[in-house]
Amino acid sequence: MKESIGDGKAPAELPSAYVKWRASCLGRTTDALEQNLILRLIGPVAGLNVLDVGCGDGQLAALLARGGATVSAIDPDARMSKAAGRHFAATGVSVALDRGSVEAMPYRNDSFDIVLAVTLLCLVRDPQEAIIRMARVLKPGGRLVVGELGRRSVWAGWRRLRGWLGHPTWRSARFFTEADLRELVRGAGLAPQTIRAAIFYPPLGWTTRLLAPVDPWLGKRFVSGGAFLVLIATKADTQ
């Protein structure tokens, strides 16, 4: 299963920065590379129960539903939840959508084959607690898929600078190394498996068309230097 992000448009009710990002070549290309990496690592999802935590406007959840998964999605932001609902309706997919935080998810223990969290840990108060909560709803033998912001990248330096200059998101955001993510999932009793990276080009629009075609090649060979890390961890099968 490998698809890019539809038409790249963001619904009008989303924050202006989000809309601007989705309208740019840099934003569309970067989102597509990140989503394609996640989907490639997850593999076939037909018949699986999947939870997307912090689903945003629902682009990735919709792709998983189109791949045959039974998908639930949750986000704490009212605007994002509304945008996700509209996206699901417009694309004709069935996704069970809830509004809520990772700290208070309304799901039973051992409910999902895959739990997915993309750029969630970088913004939550306690990343370790968030992983523990997601591990709770993961079935024995299931997979946690974490997509996060890489610390050892040009993008991280650029975002830190913006934070120092007062940008509200990047002022408090966290960035992660491969070792950081492995430690977090181990702290929740999960076993880290695969880790890959994407987005090796700088955050400059003119570099996107030139360097994006070689990004997947780089991601197969390097982790350090990638602005986006994807870690897959498994929950022990108790049977």
Q: Indicate the radius of gyration in whole angstroms.
A: 17 Å
Please name the CATH architecture.
3-Layer(aba) Sandwich
Strand order of the largest sheet: 3-2-1-4-5-7-6
The CATH class is identified as Alpha Beta
Q: Can you say what the CATH homologous superfamily is?
A: Vaccinia Virus protein VP39
What share of the residues does DSSP label as strand, in percent? 15-25%
Q: What proportion of the residues is helical, as a percent range?
A: 40-55%
Give a structural overview:
- By secondary structure, this protein is α/β, with parallel strands linked by helices.
- It has a single domain (16-235), classed as Rossmann fold.
- 40% of the residues lie in helices and 22% in strands.
- It contains 10 helices and 7 strands.
- The chain has helices at residues 16-23, 25-42, 59-66, 78-91, 127-136, 154-164, 168-172, 178-187, 205-211, 215-219, and strands spanning 49-53, 70-75, 95-99, 112-118, 138-149, 190-198, 228-235.
- It has a 7-stranded mixed beta sheet with strand order 3-2-1-4-5-7-6, sandwiched between helices.
- The chain starts with 15 loop residues before the first helix and ends with a strand.
Short description:
The chain has helices at residues 16-23, 25-42, 59-66, 78-91, 127-136, 154-164, 168-172, 178-187, 205-211, 215-219, and strands at 49-53, 70-75, 95-99, 112-118, 138-149, 190-198, 228-235.
Q: What descriptive keywords fit this protein?
A:
disordered N terminus; 10 helices; Rossmann fold; 7 strands; seven-stranded mixed sheet; alpha/beta; 239 residues
